[in-house]
């Protein structure tokens, strides 16, 4: 495998000089070829996502396919504009020159993806890489093997290996890939592995985009439509069985509203995921692996052993890798569930007395990928936004900021570096090159030596 990877890498390194000459129309042809290949394999993708994650057809359509078709169409529509050099104003040092920013392809890029939205999280950066005129090697996750296989077929259908290639496999394949001097690495996955990727990239001074995880807090202000908040949080928490990087990880609820919120959350879960008192596994996904299932069970067991209260759920079905929605409250300090990203259908609730105490707790942790605020009070909303940091925020909703390609999507420090989607993805895979065209009306020599007679500058 090592040899094959090296051959493909070298071929791409040679081909990148040809590819960079492509204009917008030529790149659009490539994006359309990718779209055609995805459409051809749509049925197989539905089946693969059902097999890997028990993803319903509806969830696959909305969170994987439509998302990618949207990104493709958006790139096709806007690429000409994104690629065109941007005019920049003059300054005293370049009074009559033309100043421009050119977007040049980075070259050969590596895309490493996770398993939770295994199609979307390969394709979204790949669209940006192609739009920006790059060659790419893609490494999908070994934990979603059915989807990874279809991804390999789609890529082989749409591209020659000299332009885009896919290597399936586990961390050992990533390790081989990470030894190579790529021009850019786009990694989506855990914060822990993100550090390994950044360390490997540093050896070659390769630029990185890191789309990582972490604990995304949700604040429910006292002045709120609490029923709506409970419904939205239940959906955001339980879509894909909680295995969503921007899922609300834990919730702050005012101490006087704790029982009301728990009741409303239960009602929302019941409405969305239960049919005549039985969990509806047609709409509710499974945990990706027994290892992840056990990790989640251990997190809950440890919190409960320490004294946490189970307010909902607690039913585990190992044979089907299914964990019914769980709510925990009264969680003792030091519980692992409040330290690690949960990435499963367990919602810890922390009760609070005032918002500043909530802000202090959030700021004591690593910066979140997402922070959600539910409130009717504009002053409180602004106060929270001003005093916290997060990759992205929704006010009175969850997750939806990821769906607008006009917004940057990404983390900050511990939750990521750089951003993706739309023009932000295009820029991440491009080098912004400053180009100055000097004018014939050029007085630069005013600052050249000798300096005698030019002391007036001082
Ligand atoms: P992971 O970090 O375990 O794996 C991600 C990828 O890295 C996989 O392809 C895997 O094979 C590879 N990998 C694993 N170990 C490696 C190593 N030692 N060296 C090199 N490569 C290695 O993450 P995961 O479990 O697949 O995904 C879950 C994590 O991803 C969560 O933390 C989640 O929050 C995060 N995530 C973030 C986003 C985002 O957009 N910010 C999106 C989805 C998931």
UniProtKB/TrEMBL annotation:
Is Lipid metabolism included in the keywords of this UniProt record?
no
Domain named Aldehyde dehydrogenase: residues:
10-434
Q: Which domain of life is it from?
A: Bacteria
| Entry keyword set | Coiled coil, NAD, Oxidoreductase
Record's InterPro entries?
Answer: Ald_DH/histidinol_DH, Ald_DH_C, Ald_DH_CS_CYS, Ald_DH_CS_GLU, Ald_DH_N, Aldehyde_DH_dom, Aldehyde_DH_NAD(P)
A GO cellular component annotated for this chain's UniProt record is: cytoplasm
Q: Carries keyword Isomerase? A: no
Q: Which GO terms describe its biological process?
A: aldehyde metabolic process
Taking the record's annotation, the residue ranges forming a coiled coil are 24-51
Question: Which positions are catalytic residues?
Answer: 211, 245
One GO molecular-function entry: aldehyde dehydrogenase (NAD+) activity
The UniProt family comment states: Belongs to the aldehyde dehydrogenase family.
What is the name attached to this protein's record?
Aldehyde dehydrogenase
- Recorded source organism is Pedobacter planticolens
């Amino acid at each position: 495998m090592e040899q094959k990877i090296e051959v493909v890498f070298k071929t791409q390194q040679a081909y990148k000089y040809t590819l960079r000459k492509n204009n917008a129309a030529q790149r659009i042809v490539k994006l359309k070829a990718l779209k055609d290949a995805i459409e051809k394999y749509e049925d197989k993708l539905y089946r693969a996502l059902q097999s890997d994650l028990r993803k319903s057809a509806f969830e696959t359509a909305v969170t994987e396919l439509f998302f990618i078709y949207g990104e493709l169409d958006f790139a096709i529509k806007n690429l000409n504009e994104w690629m065109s050099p941007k005019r920049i104003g003059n300054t005293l040092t370049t009074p009559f020159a033309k100043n421009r920013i050119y977007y040049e392809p980075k070259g050969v890029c590596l895309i490493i993806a996770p398993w939770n939205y295994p199609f979307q999280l390969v394709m979204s950066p790949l669209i940006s890489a192609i739009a920006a005129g790059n060659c790419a090697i893609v490494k999908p996750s070994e934990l979603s093997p059915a989807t990874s296989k279809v991804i390999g077929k789609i890529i082989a259908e749409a591209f020659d290996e000299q332009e885009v290639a896919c290597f399936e496999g586990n961390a050992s394949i990533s390790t081989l890939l990470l030894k190579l001097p790529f021009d850019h690495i786009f990694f989506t996955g855990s914060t822990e592995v993100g550090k390994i990727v950044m360390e490997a990239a540093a050896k070659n001074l390769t630029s990185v985009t890191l789309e990582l995880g972490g604990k995304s807090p949700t604040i429910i202000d006292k002045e709120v439509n609490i029923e709506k908040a409970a419904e939205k949080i239940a959906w955001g928490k339980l879509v894909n069985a909680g295995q969503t990087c921007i899922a609300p990880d834990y919730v702050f609820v005012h101490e006087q509203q704790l029982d009301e919120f728990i009741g409303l959350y239960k009602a929302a879960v019941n409405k969305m995921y239960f049919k005549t008192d039985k969990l509806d596994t047609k709409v509710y996904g499974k945990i990706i692996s027994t290892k992840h299932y056990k990790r989640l069970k251990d997190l809950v067991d440890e919190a409960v052993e320490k004294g946490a209260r189970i307010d909902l759920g607690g039913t585990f079905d190992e044979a089907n890798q299914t964990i019914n929605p769980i709510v925990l409250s009264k969680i003792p300090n030091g519980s692992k569930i409040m330290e690690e990203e949960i990435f499963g259908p367990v919602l810890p609730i922390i009760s609070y007395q005032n918002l500043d105490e909530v802000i202090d707790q959030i700021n004591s942790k690593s910066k979140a990928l997402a922070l959600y605020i539910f409130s009717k009070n504009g002053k409180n909303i602004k106060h929270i936004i001003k005093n916290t940091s997060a990759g992205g925020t929704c006010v009175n909703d969850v997750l939806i900021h990821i769906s607008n390609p006009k917004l940057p999507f990404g983390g900050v420090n511990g939750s990521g570096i750089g951003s993706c989607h739309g023009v932000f993805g295009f820029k991440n895979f491009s080098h912004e090159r400053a180009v100055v065209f000097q004018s014939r009306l050029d007085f630069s020599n005013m600052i050249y030596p000798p300096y005698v007679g030019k002391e007036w500058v001082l």
